Amino acid sequence: MKMIRIITLLAVGLFCHISLAQETPDPVTPLENTEQMMEEKIRQEAKEAKEAMKRIEKAEREAKKAEKAQKKAEKELKNREKLSSDIDSKKRSIAKDEKKIDRLQKKMIKDENKGKLSPLAIEKINKKVDKLKKGIEKDREKLTKLESKQ
Asked: For residues 117 and 108, is the Cβ–Cβ distance under 8 A?
């Protein structure tokens, strides 16, 4: 029985010795090295944050540029549409005044043949026709200016 106890004791001792030998001790880092590593980590994070802020600011600048260019393009399109509308308006105005002149002249000839017009009425109609012709001339000048802008 003593022999079994001794063998058991030796086996337990051997087992403890083997288990202690297999454990790896934690590496002991000096306190200074740990502080340096923490400072380096903080610097690295600050650097990354700064770079991220630069990228964000750059993206914002690019977005503002794109928005400004889009507004400029929209404004240009609006101006072209307005110019086109003004040109059409002037053309319609000229055509309308020319039709008025034709109607007045036809009516004057018709009434003159019937003998309904007095010299004063003829003069009045001629003044209207002259006024319309001057308006047409001004509209044509404006039309040429608008077309040159286009």
From this structure: yes
